[in-house]
Amino acid sequence: MTTDHPSFPIPLRSDAAVQRGAALRFFMDGEPVEAFAGESVAAALMAAGRRTLRHSPRDGAPRGAFCLMGSCQECLVWIGTRKQPSCQVAVAAGLEVESLPWREARA
Amino acid sequence: MSAPVPLDLLVIGAGPAGARAALRARSCGLSVLLVDENPGAGGQVWRPLPAAFERRGDAPPSPEARDGDALRHELRRSGVKSLFGHKVWNIGSDLRTDVIGPDGSRSWHPRALLVATGTTERVVPFPGWTLPGVIGLAAATILLKSQNMLPGRRTVVAGSGPLLLAVANGILKAGGEVAAVVDIASRGEWLRTLPSLTGRPDLVWQGMQWQWRLRAAGVPVLYRHAVRAVESAGNGFGVRIGPVDASGRPLERAGVERVWQADAVAVGHGLVPGTDVTRLLRARHRFVRERGGWIAQADADGRTSVPGLYIAGDGAGIAGAAAAGAHGEIAALACALDLGVLDAGTHARLRAPLASQWARSARFGHAMAGLMALRAGAVAGIAADTVVCRCEDVTRAQIDAAVREGARDVNQLKAWTRCGMGPCQGRTCGDVAGALVAAQVGGREAAGFFTGRAPLRPVSLAEVAGEYTYADIPIPKAAPL
Which of B20, B210, B358, B451 is the most exposed, having the fewest neighbouring CB atoms within 10 Å of its CB? Predict the structure, then answer.
């Protein structure tokens, strides 16, 4: 998948203290993303090097996950028929996630 | 759509305050519903591991993980009905509470409502704080503690308060690199909090361990410094860092600024009590800077100015997790007393040990809250073209211009500029926007706070409306001609 930080993907996952859930694959803007059960969509995307999720409404500036607790709404993505903060949604095998700009461009 | 379900007490938020309140209220015989938008109890401080993760046998759980696990175990065994992954999106003046979950919206009609919604993080804006890869300190703790993930390979940890040390240590423990810890406070300010640690050898020990680990890793700790700007540079960021005075104002001397290379920034300037619900219900509020900002006015037992509405925990003024648990139980006892299931004598007997527990724990929490309080110079030093309201891209210059042109409080500011009108509903910018307006209109009381509005969280009309037929829509009779 395209990453906005060329140095990524880097190993951001730390398995010193935990055993993650099963490896799985979900889709972001049609491209496969490897993740582990239990991870949030926002965290899995960060680990995959996908930091920019949308653009701000007036300036068109890049935005990504910021508070990770469902308050700031910066990490909104489309999941099915609903816009949801990606930090509040757990990954699942085959889950189809679309960024707002991606869906807009295809509308 | 079904009629609201009646019950004694609805508790919003399953952190230390809300969960302990629910347990105590249940043990007094009240019917209790505990609602939280997160997948499990514990709040941010005791946030559980994802259910699909397993702690390794050889990795000892942290004290926080132990406390959280004990609380969750107790909740499961209690008669408290819990709804996780559910959001309270609206509350009526009769306390009817609308809750949305995967199966749509349902309503409860509690006799008492206890708000234990904790805090949100404040970040004093600087150029570049909106760049992807710049996250909150609280966000970093969630990544580290729950997701077991680093914010970046090399992270600048900046801002104020105890989360600085916690996050920097979490990063080191997880195998990441900390470029620098950047603290608005001076070393002396930290030392002055030491008396509040009397009787808490566990916290002293933890603090010492944290300091040692930073030193061993060679992490520079820059006291009385702040991040001035974050700029994209190559594969990461250039983080401009410079000294500040005691009020947080950047010191402008030649050659004092330095650029640090990093690929992530975790930054936070303290916590702000969550007042979404109490503002929505038009409770009276007061501004207490050293407790985090605006908080609902309440007596020592959490009774607000609205009958039947109670608050507890950090959302009632920052005092820390240990105090929050005791505060939650005290508020639950007040509910039980007010609802008539507890007589005054029993209430007093049960309350006394909790009150002294609260007083002991709150000393440390209050000292930390003091370190995290918003500093006037930091706000004054925000550059004119810096975005303050992230949702609507409103800059400091636009805020200042609106006030110059006659906006007298934050709600007029909101109407004129859309500052605080976006999807976060002012939770992210509200405190700083209030401070910017206050600087020109003569104080925080004059500047006020954003009027609480439903929905408390973004919801879709389809979710709220749910399944219905046209016959369900009440159509009033037309007036006779």
Answer: B451
pLDDT, tens only, B351-394: 999 999 999 999 999 999 999 999 999 999 999 999 999 999 99
pLDDT at A8 over 60: no
Strand pairing category for B54-55 and A18-19: antiparallel
Contact of B147 with A43, CB cutoff 8 Å? yes
- Taking the Cβ of residue B98 and every Cβ of chain A, the question of whether any pair is shorter than 8 Å is answered with no
Query: How many whole angstroms separate alpha carbon B41 and alpha carbon B82?
Result: 9
Asked if B392 is an interface residue toward chain A (Cβ–Cβ < 8 A), one would say yes
pLDDT confidence band for B59 (50 / 70 / 90): confident
Q: Provide, as residue numbers in chain A, all residues whose Cβ is less than 8 Å from the Cβ of B151.
A: 12, 46
- pLDDT, residue B25, reads 98
A61 touches chain B (CB under 8 A): yes
Domains of chain A and CATH, by start: 23-106 (3.10.20.440)
**In which element (H, E) is residue B140 found?**
helix B137-142
A58 contacts on B by Cβ (under 8 Å) = 392-393
Contact at 8 Å (CB) between B365 and B290?
A: no
Half-sphere exposure of B142 (CA within 13 A, CB side): 22
Q: Which residues in chain B touch residue A74, judged by CB atoms under 8 angstroms apart?
A: 390, 424
| pTM confidence score | 0.95
| Contact state of A72 with B422 under an 8 Å Cβ cutoff | no
